[in-house]
Amino acid sequence: EPEVTQTPSHQVTQMGQEVILRCVPISNHLYFYWYRQILGQKVEFLVSFYNNEISEKSEIFDDQFSVERPDGSNFTLKIRSTKLEDSAMYFCASSVAGSDTQYFGPGTRLTVL
Amino acid sequence: GESVGLHLPTLSVQEGDNSIINCAYSNSASDYFIWYKQESGKGPQFIIDIRSNMDKRQGQRVTVLLNKTVKHLSLQIAATQPGDSAVYFCAENGVDNYGQNFVFGPGTRLSVLP
């Protein structure tokens, strides 16, 4: 069964460093998403992406964040200068259509020291 | 009740009993709802969905009920099993953004007792 994959599973970085989180969505899906989940809290929407551009973003997704689909399979989230409060699980998701079920990857745990 | 930070509402049920998990949603314009299950250390996993033109939808051992009048969603799990132990989230999608932005509820932790 096709699934969303994410790498790395755990990323540790120093405050102020740049990180890139990688996702491979399900191959026939057209919509891509990033969410984050701070430990013990609910899942929060960051950004959605369709047709090589951002469709919608939340207030969390400020200028420090960017997304890219560098090739036909990868979907990345970049944080330019990490802060302590960026420590969280970051989930990628994809869906066939915009109003369809989103399938989530296993997440990347980001720890900012 | 409301959950803040680490203090998720918890539902404990005996193995074999039925479970009912509730969720209140906020946007009366939401037209699509999903229940997700999240096991420890894993991403949310789709369980069942329902659109606003329906009141009830059944899957395998699960049923979702939607009450638009009071903006309430529930997930019923029949014959609860140990593997059902997880945190369950409801998510709503507002009609204005065509499914591109799902808002998740705070979650309920289901514990299945032997």
Entry summary:
The complex is a heterodimer of chains A (about 110) and B (about 110). Chain A is mostly beta strands and about 110 residues long. In chain A, about 0% of the residues lie in helices and about 50% in strands.
Radius of gyration of chain A over all CA atoms, rounded? 13 Å
Query: For the report, how would you describe the main beta sheet of chain A?
Result: 7 strands, mixed
Oligomer: heterodimer
Largest contact between protein chains? Answer: A-B, 29 and 26 residues
Major sheet of chain B, described briefly? 6 strands, mixed
**Structural class by sheet pairing and helices of chain A:** mainly beta
Q: What does the average pLDDT of chain A come to?
A: 92
Q: Determine the number of helices of chain A (DSSP H or I, runs of at least 4 residues).
A: 0
* First-residue to last-residue Cα separation of chain A: 37 Å
Mean pLDDT of chain B: 86
Order of helices and strands of chain B: EEEEEEEEEE
Query: Order of SSEs of chain A, N→C?
Result: EEEEEEEEEEE
Distance between the termini of chain B: 25 Å
Estimate percent helicity of chain B: under 10%
**Relative helix content of chain A:** under 10%
Q: Which percent band covers the strand fraction of chain B?
A: over 45%
Instruction: State the secondary-structure class of chain B.
Output: mainly beta
Extended strand count of chain A: 11
